[in-house]
Amino acid sequence: MTVRPPKAVGFTLIEVMLAMTLLSIMVVLLFSSLRIGAESWNAGESKIASVNEKAVVYQFFKRHLPGIRPLWDDFSEQEPSFSFQGRRERMQFVSVLPVSAAHKGLQLFEIGIDPRDRDVIMVKLKPFYPTEEDAQWRQEEVVLLEHVREFELSYYSQDLGNGIWLDSWQDKESLPALIKIKITLDDQSYWPEMTFALRLAGAAGDKL
């Protein structure tokens, strides 16, 4: 009786190579999926950040522009001047901060392109007049928006019943009826024009 040797147990070289090929394909597909997922996540995060940035800027203008006060600065030694002054890239006005803010009362805002950095919109803020004797006229500066390519302001005039948009609103004795703001970013992302009506535009300028 002939005894046969036991059959060898294992994989052939071809089977091993096929298995390694399949494993390599699976690893490539897995990392490709992870890369696509990471890119999608980053794109989503960037989109959310962009939307939040636009919302913050819009809310800033919505909060302060409609309540602009038609006031005169005649409490200093200089010749009285109307508090609202507007140019194409810069605007000055008086508004009130909310009660919850650290600084209360009438505040003088100056918003415009920072001359030191042309791609930044800067907000300068200080009290319109001291609330206490010998109070310091402290001015604060805050960056409102960065990476700005263009910042344009327009002012709607209703003088003599003829409505017209102007690039400048200086040396006048009243407020414009509307203010339009156009912002273009460096990445050319869509930013809708913003237009705000001034509630006290028809009121006569008050002198303090």
Automatic annotation (TrEMBL):
Keywords: Membrane, Transmembrane, Transmembrane helix. InterPro entries: N_methyl_site, Pilin-like. It comes from the Bacteria. The chain crosses the membrane at residues 12-31. This is Prepilin-type N-terminal cleavage/methylation domain-containing protein.
